[in-house]
Amino acid sequence: MPSTTRPPPPLTPSSKIPPTPPDSKHLPRLLCLHGGGVNASIFAAQSRSLIRHLQHSFRLVWADGPFFCDPHSDIIHVYGSYAPFRRWLRWLPEHAEIDAESAVEEIGYAIRSAMEGDEREGGRGEWVGILGFSQGAKVAGSLLLEQQAREELARRNGTKDIGVGPIGIPGLNWRFAVLLAGRAPLSNLNPDVLKSEALVSAADISEGFQFVKEVDAQAVLRKPTVHVHGMADPGLHLHRRLLHEYCEVGSTRLVEWEGAHRIPIKSVDVEPVVVATYDVAEEVGVRVLRTA
């Protein structure tokens, strides 16, 4: 069973948060992936309460999805002027068809562009984790699974060289992911290595995906993940499916909160997410400054 955290009673504002953000150039880096129908700027604005904590332990790098789309209906009233709106994957029939190879290439290029842009801005810390919301969480988990598959292939072949994944940057080692409202199934970001029928092609619409009876071992993510579930989220059954069927028992932490399909804002909801993130980061050898 996953480790589960339910929100504690309301607390007074945390006094553990330093008054000023640090110089983040040498902090370990978190890649941040937005949901569908928004963009990196909106995701950063929505994540402001998380940023208040995490910016003291990580350099947060916000990537824009490669494909343009209409704004998500949930954000248009507040963020309607933040165009253009983007997506990582198709989720509606009107989204332009694309072959799997091109889809993976575009996703990788978009992420690589954000990472290289951060290098130009002075970021020097190790890339250690990925934080994603909704569709961005699906991509985050899928990137970890893709790396895991290359690592396992290298072990079978008796080599330490795991090759280069879809992002195209050698030496990346994603240690963990924070999946906010992440849905099953995971996407196949390396069809040459991953052959599981439990994964959806990057070319396909995952809505209406015909789940297999049993997720095979190749599609099970064993790298550490934090799962954040809103109890009023209409996609909760798919979030739970990702947690229970696509992630190995013992590798996960679950944070549940009384919210819908959005990113927690209030301290009572945010702090359990932050604590779980710190716990997982420390488990994989990343030093953090605990602000909650």
From TrEMBL:
Chain spans, region Disordered: 1-22
Residue ranges of coiled coil: none
One Gene Ontology biological process: secondary metabolite biosynthetic process
InterPro entries assigned to the protein according to its UniProt record, in alphabetical order: AB_hydrolase_fold (IPR029058), FSH-like_dom (IPR005645), LovG (IPR050593)
Listed Pfam families: FSH1
Molecular function GO terms recorded: hydrolase activity
Cellular component terms (Gene Ontology): cytoplasm; nucleus
Keywords: Hydrolase
Residue span(s) of domain Serine hydrolase: 28-271
Superkingdom of origin organism: Eukaryota
Family, similarity comment: Belongs to the LovG family.
PANTHER family (alphabetical): ESTERASE DBAE-RELATED (PTHR48070:SF3), ESTERASE OVCA2 (PTHR48070)
Identification of the protein by name: Serine hydrolase domain-containing protein
Organism: Lentithecium fluviatile CBS 122367
